[in-house]
Amino acid sequence: MDELVKLVSQKLGLSEDIARQAVELILNQLKQHFPAPIAGQIDGLLKGSASLSDLGNLPQTGGGLMKVLGGLFGKK
């Protein structure tokens, strides 16, 4: 998660503390909308036991990650 916090901090010109709060808020919101296997990966990011590169190894669930993401943004 540290790499994501640094990226947000740099791109938005925020302090790392504020960027960390923003990243945690967003990841917690996403976690509520994803199936359990994906939410577990997000938990790993929050706890520091996973990195952004680990998200590329997500299991396919019920039509795949892109279907889940599409559903979050109102596409079926």
Please state the overall shape, judged from the principal axes of the Cα atoms: elongated
Summed up, the domain count is 1
Report the average pLDDT across residues. Answer: 74
Q: Main sheet?
A: none
Helix content: 55-70%
**What is the gyration radius calculated from CA atoms?**
13 Å
Question: How does the helix and strand content classify structurally?
Answer: mainly alpha
Could you characterize what this model shows?
The protein is mainly α and 76 residues long. It has one domain. The chain is 64% helix and 0% strand. It is built from 4 helices and no strands. The chain has helices at 2-12, 16-33, 36-47, 65-72. Helix 1 crosses helix 2 (16-33). The protein is elongated. The chain starts with a helix and ends with a helix. The model has no long low-confidence stretch (mean pLDDT 74).
